[in-house]
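Subject: design request, 342 residues
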């Protein structure tokens, strides 16, 4: 009996160590989800493309309490495109939106003050074109003379035009038909168009709609889009403290999307089994980061030239796109993430 006695302190020590570890983990979780203890809670409406993987930092910030920790009650409004999300901001139905660069360019060219507070996502292989093999669309060059569905004024539209230009096809050599993103798969399946251009997850939806009859061409060589958070210029500039809070929450959200891929993919709970499998396969190629990069300004200028050439907006002169980015908040919160020359 005496030989067994020393084991008891070891058991107690192990139990204490386990309880201490559990307590530390619980404290960490509480800190991660805690609401700021002082100051009023600020309600913020965010128009978000909730089905697009680029929205992951926003979804994570909402779901895991990073907005709440900053004293923000984030109300997410779902939209199927950045164009529609930004329209909600311009119409006063939301304060901020997730949006690609193209709608920001078109807003600037149409004398609407929109500013980007940060880019939150970048991917190359998430825009493209799906064609019907039975309509003779088997190669990029075979798009000539075809009817192509697209959501005008979006990154899908820009990608399509750049893709056609790469094939030395003139705009007049195809017929464009305008659809909302969620309508493209149906239009393709019904044969209203011979091909359709868009982005994920709608590309996958188009391919499944004509399963066994689909040719898909990705646009990674012509468009590597930056996905952003943007708001009306007056609102953003008049709420610098709020912008800093939003960016701190998004930094935590982007970190979650990078470090916890399985849990991050679970944020897209409405994804089909095939879409979930596609996300899992592609996740390592996604870049979740809260930045303002000089490449953004160069992209905005390139896209403005495209829009002016195609007469998609009122202005015919190049805007100063430094007016379309809000630098102060990110420079305060994460100065190393801000590389815009100014």
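Subject: RE: design request

Done. Sequence follows.
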């Amino acid at each position: 009996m005496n030989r067994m006695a020393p084991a008891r302190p070891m058991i107690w020590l192990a139990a204490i160590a386990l309880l201490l570890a559990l307590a530390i983990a619980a404290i960490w979780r509480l800190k991660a989800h805690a609401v700021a203890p002082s100051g009023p809670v600020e309600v913020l409406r965010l128009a978000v493309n909730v089905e697009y993987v680029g929205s992951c930092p926003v979804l994570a910030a909402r779901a895991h309490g990073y907005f709440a920790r900053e004293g923000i009650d984030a109300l997410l409004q779902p939209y199927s495109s950045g164009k529609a999300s930004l329209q909600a901001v311009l119409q006063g139905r939301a304060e901020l939106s997730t949006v690609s660069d193209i709608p920001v360019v078109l807003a600037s060219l149409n004398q609407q003050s929109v500013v980007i507070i940060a880019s939150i996502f970048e991917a190359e292989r998430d825009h493209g074109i799906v064609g019907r093999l039975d309509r003779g669309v088997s190669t990029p060059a075979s798009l000539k003379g075809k009817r192509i569905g697209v959501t005008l004024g979006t990154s899908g539209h820009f990608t399509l035009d750049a893709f056609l230009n790469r094939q030395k096809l003139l705009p007049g050599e195809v017929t464009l038909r305008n659809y909302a993103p969620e309508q493209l798969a149906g239009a393709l399946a019904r044969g209203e168009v011979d091909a359709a251009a868009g982005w994920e997850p709608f590309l996958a939806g188009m391919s499944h709609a004509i399963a066994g009859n689909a040719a898909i061409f990705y646009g990674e060589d012509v468009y590597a889009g930056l996905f952003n958070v943007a708001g009306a210029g007056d609102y953003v500039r008049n709420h610098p403290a709020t912008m800093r809070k939003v960016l701190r929450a998004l930094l935590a959200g982007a970190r979650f999307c990078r470090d916890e891929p399985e849990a991050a993919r679970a944020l897209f709970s409405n994804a089909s089994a095939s879409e979930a499998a596609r996300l899992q396969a592609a996740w390592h190629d996604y870049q979740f980061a809260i930045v303002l990069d000089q490449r953004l300004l160069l992209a905005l200028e390139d896209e403005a030239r495209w829009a002016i050439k195609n007469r998609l907006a009122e202005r015919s002169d190049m805007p100063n796109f430094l007016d379309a980015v809000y630098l102060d908040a990110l420079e305060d919160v994460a100065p190393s993430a801000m590389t815009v020359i100014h």
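DSSP finds 14 helices and eleven strands in the chain.
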